[in-house]
Amino acid sequence: MELQGKRIVLGVTGGIAAYKAAELLRLLSKQGADVQVAMTEGATHFVTPTTFQALSGKPVFTDQWDARMPNAMAHIDLSRQADLILVAPASADFLARTAHGLADDLLATMVLARDCPMLVAPAMNRQMWENPATQRNVAQLAADGVHILGPACGEQACGEVGAGRMLEPEEILEEVIAFFTPKLMAGKKVLITAGPTFEAIDPVRGITNLSSGRMGYALARAAQHAGATVTLVSGPVSFSAPQGVDRNNVRSALEMHAAVMARAGEADIFIGVAAVADYRVANAAEHKLKKDTGGIPPIELVENPDILAEVAALKDGPFCVGFAAESQNLEAYAQAKRKKKNIPLIAGNLIQDGFGGDDNTLILFDEAGAHPLKPAAKSVLAGQLIQHIAHLTGKN
Ligand code: C5P
């Protein structure tokens, strides 16, 4: 749970996208956040407070004069000790009132009385968004330190197409998690390989492995959250790149090698997570091999370049991190691999503990020895590995 213990006030204002705030609330709660919902009167015309009450397990406040607050201090009490006020959707009207410091309803008053950061996810018709008045208000809010999330471009509830769509709840969740992540890698360029490679035998067949790419993608996401500029060189995997990450698709080890070597010189940190095939087929057939052409076709293998070792050998190259997936003798094999490739850090895991799955058990091996991490989701382990890398690179 990446938002465990975080207290968030979720402000919901009037707009069609208010229905998506219910899903956002569910996602925030699932990550452990303690969420208090406050709605404008307009928002209650789109979704009822009961929905948010059921999802948050707390009373929802809409009225500044709510008699449930014994001291009539709802605007201060509700946001007191909040770590964040998140307003999604944020209507043009809400942005305008906030930019001008108005306090004419509960949410606006809470926002004015806050002593915590605020994120807003605007949602409105594209012409309302493009209107110079809205743009002025948004620029003012940004200058006042409010974080503006989106909006996205696309089809709108009114049938028009353009900028003004609220970011999707999953995207807003990512922004919130990123917001709370210490920026240990601010200004760093991180290059990561992920996934399997596919070594062609003929146009339809090949040699590959069961790497899902999850660990590499989780690291790309964690590095991005930690403030790095992240480039991912990915073998064939079935999911999309984390928000804001530059993804480059490759298939074979040779393609991955070329893509990495073209970018390694600029990187501060290189993390080789890909399960690169050790060998490729030397005599890959141009046309599909046929069964009935007599005999079993011979497959000749040649060794692939060791991408990680090559990057580690670069003069003034990046800080290099490797992965060692073993089925036995983890410590001995991982440390031997670290020394052979001449890299400062390697993350070892037993194949039976995590290859292809959502969770993993990692042990980090560096000059100082072994640092076991508790078994956890790959997203959590990725954050811990990024912290360890930041700690080691910070020392240099
Ligand atoms: O030598 P081995 O494949 O066990 O080492 C694993 C580590 O080396 C991983 O970090 C992997 O991404 C990297 N590697 C590589 N190029 C290869 C083979 C492995 O970058 N050809």
UniProtKB/TrEMBL annotation:
<keyword id="KW-0479">Metal-binding</keyword>
<keyword id="KW-0436">Ligase</keyword>
<comment type="pathway">
    <text>Cofactor biosynthesis; coenzyme A biosynthesis; CoA from (R)-pantothenate: step 3/5.</text>
</comment>
<feature type="binding site">
    <location>
        <position position="288"/>
    </location>
    <ligand>
        <name>CTP</name>
    </ligand>
</feature>
<dbReference type="InterPro" id="IPR007085">
    <property type="entry name" value="DNA/pantothenate-metab_flavo_C"/>
</dbReference>
<comment type="similarity">
    <text>In the N-terminal section; belongs to the HFCD (homo-oligomeric flavin containing Cys decarboxylase) superfamily.</text>
</comment>
<feature type="binding site">
    <location>
        <begin position="305"/>
        <end position="308"/>
    </location>
    <ligand>
        <name>CTP</name>
    </ligand>
</feature>
<feature type="domain" description="Flavoprotein">
    <location>
        <begin position="6"/>
        <end position="178"/>
    </location>
</feature>
<dbReference type="GO" id="GO:0004633">
    <property type="term" value="F:phosphopantothenoylcysteine decarboxylase activity"/>
</dbReference>
<comment type="pathway">
    <text>Cofactor biosynthesis; coenzyme A biosynthesis; CoA from (R)-pantothenate: step 2/5.</text>
</comment>
<feature type="binding site">
    <location>
        <position position="278"/>
    </location>
    <ligand>
        <name>CTP</name>
    </ligand>
</feature>
<dbReference type="Pfam" id="PF04127">
    <property type="entry name" value="DFP"/>
</dbReference>
<dbReference type="GO" id="GO:0015941">
    <property type="term" value="P:pantothenate catabolic process"/>
</dbReference>
<feature type="binding site">
    <location>
        <position position="323"/>
    </location>
    <ligand>
        <name>CTP</name>
    </ligand>
</feature>
<feature type="active site" description="Proton donor">
    <location>
        <position position="158"/>
    </location>
</feature>
<feature type="region of interest" description="Phosphopantothenoylcysteine decarboxylase">
    <location>
        <begin position="1"/>
        <end position="189"/>
    </location>
</feature>
<dbReference type="GO" id="GO:0004632">
    <property type="term" value="F:phosphopantothenate--cysteine ligase activity"/>
</dbReference>
<dbReference type="GO" id="GO:0010181">
    <property type="term" value="F:FMN binding"/>
</dbReference>
<comment type="similarity">
    <text>In the C-terminal section; belongs to the PPC synthetase family.</text>
</comment>
<dbReference type="InterPro" id="IPR036551">
    <property type="entry name" value="Flavin_trans-like"/>
</dbReference>
<keyword id="KW-0285">Flavoprotein</keyword>
<dbReference type="InterPro" id="IPR003382">
    <property type="entry name" value="Flavoprotein"/>
</dbReference>
<dbReference type="GO" id="GO:0046872">
    <property type="term" value="F:metal ion binding"/>
</dbReference>
<dbReference type="InterPro" id="IPR005252">
    <property type="entry name" value="CoaBC"/>
</dbReference>
<protein>
    <recommendedName>
        <fullName>Coenzyme A biosynthesis bifunctional protein CoaBC</fullName>
        <ecNumber>4.1.1.36</ecNumber>
        <ecNumber>6.3.2.5</ecNumber>
    </recommendedName>
</protein>
<dbReference type="GO" id="GO:0015937">
    <property type="term" value="P:coenzyme A biosynthetic process"/>
</dbReference>
<keyword id="KW-0511">Multifunctional enzyme</keyword>
<dbReference type="Pfam" id="PF02441">
    <property type="entry name" value="Flavoprotein"/>
</dbReference>
<dbReference type="GO" id="GO:0071513">
    <property type="term" value="C:phosphopantothenoylcysteine decarboxylase complex"/>
</dbReference>
<feature type="domain" description="DNA/pantothenate metabolism flavoprotein C-terminal">
    <location>
        <begin position="185"/>
        <end position="391"/>
    </location>
</feature>
<comment type="function">
    <text>Catalyzes two sequential steps in the biosynthesis of coenzyme A. In the first step cysteine is conjugated to 4'-phosphopantothenate to form 4-phosphopantothenoylcysteine. In the second step the latter compound is decarboxylated to form 4'-phosphopantotheine.</text>
</comment>
<feature type="binding site">
    <location>
        <position position="337"/>
    </location>
    <ligand>
        <name>CTP</name>
    </ligand>
</feature>
<keyword id="KW-0456">Lyase</keyword>
<feature type="binding site">
    <location>
        <position position="341"/>
    </location>
    <ligand>
        <name>CTP</name>
    </ligand>
</feature>
<keyword id="KW-0288">FMN</keyword>
<comment type="function">
    <text>Catalyzes two steps in the biosynthesis of coenzyme A. In the first step cysteine is conjugated to 4'-phosphopantothenate to form 4-phosphopantothenoylcysteine, in the latter compound is decarboxylated to form 4'-phosphopantotheine.</text>
</comment>
<keyword id="KW-0210">Decarboxylase</keyword>
<dbReference type="InterPro" id="IPR035929">
    <property type="entry name" value="CoaB-like_sf"/>
</dbReference>
<keyword id="KW-0460">Magnesium</keyword>
<feature type="region of interest" description="Phosphopantothenate--cysteine ligase">
    <location>
        <begin position="190"/>
        <end position="396"/>
    </location>
</feature>
